[in-house]
Amino acid sequence: MRTSDTFSGLVCTETGDEYDAAATGSSDADAPLDPSYDLDAVEWDAETLAERPFDTMWRYRELLAFSDPVTANEGATPLVEAAALGEEAGVESLLIKDEGRNPTGTFLDRGFSLAVTAAREADAEVVAHASPGNGAQSAASYAGLVDVRSYGFVPSRTPFPNKAMVNVHGGQMKVVGGRYPDALSALHEQLKSDWFTLQEFDNPYRHDGAKTIAYEIAERLDWSVPDWVVVPVATGELIYGVYKGFCDLTEMGLVDDVPRLVAAQSAGCSPVVTAWQAGSDAHEPWNQPDTIVGELEVTDPTGGSLALRALDESDGLAVAVSDDDALESAVTAAQTAGVEVGPAGGVALAAVWDLADEFDDETVVAVNTESGTKNADILRSHLMGQGI
């Protein structure tokens, strides 16, 4: 594989053992693999970065694994001040990191840029994975850039825009009855051809894209960090990636410390929150998921232990919120901050409301993971339920 000069290889997140850059799946210790870098060899600082245009996540190319990426100019999303929303919630300073501005409207574009690059470097002819919906759309887009055949297995409840855009981008979509675990099972049972995995953590590069969110937050705050970052949690890749990014900046001396992280989940599917509240370092699979927030309905997150590690090491918190509160928060953000927040981002904002007493006079960043237009029907139905 053609990797960047500072890329050191893959390491086991449990033992630290090293693996080849082309490795996929779990380590010998049955733990996810993680890209590793020689941070001492990264020859830039705040002044050097200031000379680069703030246009894509690849402005941080020395901290990404590949020297010739598959990219659609993902990243460089805005950090939007939400003063009215913060005042209503009782928070001194609230900012929204709006990942809905990415090419296919989701933070997952960052990870799929890297994951599909890895597939291209491995000379893959077919890529595949299962997702609640956004991932299938994103993967199809990036696979199309390199003319690789892609398969996205999604549950039947996936929003129509995701389904439509998978095909528009040239991908093959397999709709599976049931929920996300059913789609994941169908992937392994039904796809008979050889394929290169794009699954979170099985492909060790997806969560590495998420760390650039932390880089952008810190740079936009003039190389300081907020007191808190509130992250919707599904597979665990986002919160672990954000945590890793802030750790990188701390080790490089660009920021003083890692912000406290909050894992936000829907009350109808909250395996990470439940484990955190029980003081456990491992989650139990969620048996009866029941939430309208499909992107967060991941019952057995592969990165659950890594999410819990990020909370523990950042002195963080975890909270589960109701669907109604999540949808109301998303609508309020659209009406007061001009940000089209999706239901998953609404979960993060509802968590801000629930934890407002914890935040005092501090700065809070909530991550909106997806464009609200992907679930406009759900948001509109919420309003109709209120007689609007």
From TrEMBL:
One of its GO terms (biological process) is L-serine catabolic process. GO terms for molecular function: L-serine ammonia-lyase activity; threonine deaminase activity. This is Threonine synthase. PANTHER family: L-THREONINE DEHYDRATASE CATABOLIC TDCB (PTHR48078:SF6), THREONINE DEHYDRATASE, MITOCHONDRIAL-RELATED (PTHR48078). Residues 71-369 form the Tryptophan synthase beta chain-like PALP domain. It comes from the Archaea. Pfam families: PALP (PF00291). Keywords: Lyase, Pyridoxal phosphate. Its cofactor is pyridoxal 5'-phosphate. InterPro entries: Ser/Thr_Dehydratase, TrpB-like_PALP, TrpB-like_PALP_sf.
